[in-house]
Amino acid sequence: MDIVITISSGFFLLMGSFLCFSGGIGLLRFPDFYTRMHAVGVTDTLGAGMILVGLMILSTDFLVFAKLVMVLLLTLLIGPTTSHVLAKAAFHNGLMPRGLSTLEQDNNKVYSTSNP
Amino acid sequence: MLIAAIIAIFVAMILSIFRGVVGTTLYDRILAVNMFGTKTVLLIALLGFVMGRPEFLDIAIVYALINFISVIGVLRYSDTNQFKHTATDNETVKKES
Amino acid sequence: MKHTISLFVTLAVFWLLNSGHYSLLILALGFASIALILVIAHKMDVVDHESQPIHLTRNIFGYFYWLIKEIVQANIVVVKHIWLGEQSISPALKKIKISQQTDMGKVIYANSITLTPGTVAIDLVEDELTVHALLYKDIESLEIGEMDRRVTMLER
């Protein structure tokens, strides 16, 4: 039983650290702001989720487990809110994504004239 | 395994500091600060388990809320262009208050 | 009334889990603070079906199960493209139509899009949603409308 707990929590922690690390790499590698946002999304959802699930398996106290669930729910609520507000502020202040195809650029023009 | 996770999170934090220093736009810097904050929450939770003091989780919850409020607070200003502080902006603020 | 009870139960569970001390004095102080919050929330007039969406409880767990599965799949795709590098991605920005009628449905749909890595909802005007995606394929799969249909089902 002990060995099952050790192995499963170790697996979750290892996957979580790999996801967080690749999120950091994506933050450096991607070309513009909007694509970097997707890399941060990886660390916010599944990276944090995997590490917290690994800690949940390790926890022995019920209160500790409940607090870990609370941290996970807060992360999942806060992540999309901040990235949406950030994207909206950037978009309304005129930061355009790079490397769009022609179809989407047409859409952009319609958008930017209809919305002051 | 906990130590390995802590090292990986430290590396991710260092990478996000790089992005915050290099920047190129304001929003890249705010994004890097936001990611640094969520990584700090995970780091506090992991440190609590390593030191055998799960009370650290309370600090993690509070830190998550502070991080959220700080990012929203900065973006409230930048969304309404209050960073620029033109003369007309100040006039409208005075009229409304 | 049922929204007030729901808010009370949520706050009480939150308080009990965070406190960890169950002596009579501390419990009384906790009850007093919950009562204070209920009074303030009623004065702010925020206790309604929007802040306490209990009419969604019946269907929401099936939706969460489906959403977690989607998030895991999207994460694998995005991590793969992080390691493949800049040449393999095709960023796209597009306005898509949504079919939800209520504000609650629209917010759930937009937040689900943002929660899935690889797609971010930027703006919502009337029934049009501006979406930025890491791959053009993701926007096409949103336009097919699997997630849209499930959110609409959620409100029944």
SSE map:
The complex is a heterotrimer of chains A (116), B (97) and C (156).
Chain A: H1 2-29, H2 33-58, H3 62-92, H4 102-114
Helix pairs in contact in A: 1-2, 2-3
Chain B: H1 2-22, H2 26-51, H3 56-79, H4 87-96
Chain C: H1 2-19, H2 24-44, H3 57-84, E1 92-97, H4 103-115, E2 119-125, E3 128-133, H5 136-144, H6 146-154
Antiparallel strand pairs in C: 1-3, 2-3
Helix pairs in contact in C: 1-2, 3-6, 4-6
Order of helices and strands of chain B: HHHH
Q: What does the largest sheet of chain B look like?
A: none
The total domain count of chain B is 1
Report low-confidence residues of chain B grouped into runs of 5 or more: 89-97
Q: With helices defined by DSSP (H or I, 4 residues minimum), what is the helix count of chain C?
A: 6
Radius of gyration of CA atoms of chain C, rounded to a whole number:
20 Å
Profile the largest sheet of chain C: 3 strands, antiparallel
Structural class of chain B: mainly alpha
Helix content of chain B: over 70%
Strand fraction of chain C equals 5-15%
**Percent range for β-strand residues of chain B:** under 5%
Assembly annotation: heterotrimer
Report on this model:
The complex is a heterotrimer of chains A (116), B (97) and C (156). In chain A, 84% of the residues lie in helices and 0% in strands. Chain A is an all-alpha fold. Chain A is elongated. The model of chain A is unreliable at 101-116 (pLDDT under 50). With 97 residues, chain B is mainly alpha-helical. Chain B has one domain (2-96). Chain B is flat and about 45 Å long. Chain B starts with a helix and ends with a helix. Chain C has two domains: 2-44; 58-154, no CATH class. The A-C interface holds A 19, 22-23, 25-26, 29-32, 34-35, 37-39, 41-42, 45-46, 63, 66-67, 70, 76, 79-81, 83-84, 87-88, 91-92, 97-101, 103-104, 107-108, 111, 115 and C 14, 17-18, 20, 71-72, 75, 78-79, 82-83, 85-86, 89-95, 110-111, 114-123, 125, 130, 132, 134, 136.
Give a quick set of tags describing it.
heterotrimer; A: mainly alpha; 4 helices; 0% strand; elongated; C: 156 residues; alpha+beta; three-stranded antiparallel β-sheet; 63% helix
Summarize the structure.
Chain B has one domain (2-96). In chain B, 84% of the residues lie in helices and 0% in strands.
